[in-house]
Write a structure and sequence with these properties.
233 residues; alpha/beta; six-stranded parallel beta sheet; three-stranded antiparallel beta sheet; 29% helix; 20% strand; binds 6-phosphogluconic acid
Length: 233
């Protein structure tokens, strides 16, 4: 586990954007990224659009979770990604893999699981062959990550790649499950602001919070700013 502390949210966002570019440039293969939702990664996504020599042609974009809303909703994570980065650079539509809105959250989850398995080319995850190259995640002040909230059955899911969360938030959520988020060469958390300090303290000391349960196959990196760092002040 690597912890990188930045002065503020802007510095954190710049560092995370450059880090992702380095990861993507380090290979010549297709490169799969699972994007975080919420507000913290917005600035990183905006900065990505101006990163030099970013291999846009090889990178495919997936979503760690989504709110069960149409993509043009202000609450849509796919909508946020389009607004902050994909509308600003010539990325091929087939490189973007949003959670498609459907008749029900369950159908949306089933469809997304099918899409992930088609991308991966197998029905079962192979520990030696991670699904993602990079998974980006945020941290809720209750210790949730993606849409894996404390006390939800989604947190226990070990078979399905994608599941639903109903009742934990105003809109139903579709979320990748722990085994899928762990199937990555690198997982990076972006955590900013004093409001996250207590959650971060508890996750780092190993309290049984969703974000603390994540055991990535590969590298684990924490991009945090001074305000969120529980070790200072
Ligand atoms: C979402 C996210 C969620 C988010 C945390 C932190 O869709 O909301 O995936 O897990 O990362 O809630 O949200 P903020 O970055 O807005 O604090």
């Amino acid at each position: 586990m690597t912890i990188i502390v930045h002065d503020d949210a802007e510095a954190l966002s710049q560092a995370a954007a450059l880090w992702l570019a380095e990861q993507a440039r380090a290979t010549k293969e297709r490169f799969a990224v699972s994007l975080a939702g919420g507000s913290t990664p917005r600035r990183m996504y905006e900065l990505l659009a101006s990163v030099e020599r970013f291999p846009w042609d090889r990178v495919h974009w997936f979503f760690g979770d989504e709110r069960f809303v149409p993509q043009d909703s202000p609450d849509s994570n796919a909508g946020m990604a389009r607004e902050t980065v994909f509308s600003k650079i010539p990325v091929a539509p087939e490189n973007i893999h949003p959670v498609a809105f459907a008749k029900s959250p369950e159908i949306a989850a089933q469809n997304y699981e099918r899409a992930l398995k088609a991308w991966y080319g197998a029905e079962k995850l192979d520990p030696q062959r991670p699904l993602f190259d990079v998974v980006l995640l945020g941290l809720g002040d209750d210790g949730h990550t993606a849409s894996l909230f404390p006390g939800t059955t989604a947190l226990m899911e070990q078979t399905h790649w994608v599941t639903t969360v109903v009742g934990a938030t105003p809109q139903p959520r579709i979320t990748l499950t722990l085994p899928v988020l762990e199937s990555s060469r690198a997982v990076a958390f972006l955590v900013s602001g004093a409001g996250k300090r207590e959650a971060l303290r508890r996750v780092w000391r190993g309290d049984d919070l969703p974000a603390a349960r994540l055991r990535p196959r590969g590298e684990l990196v924490w991009f945090v700013d001074r305000a969120a760092d529980p070790r200072t002040g």
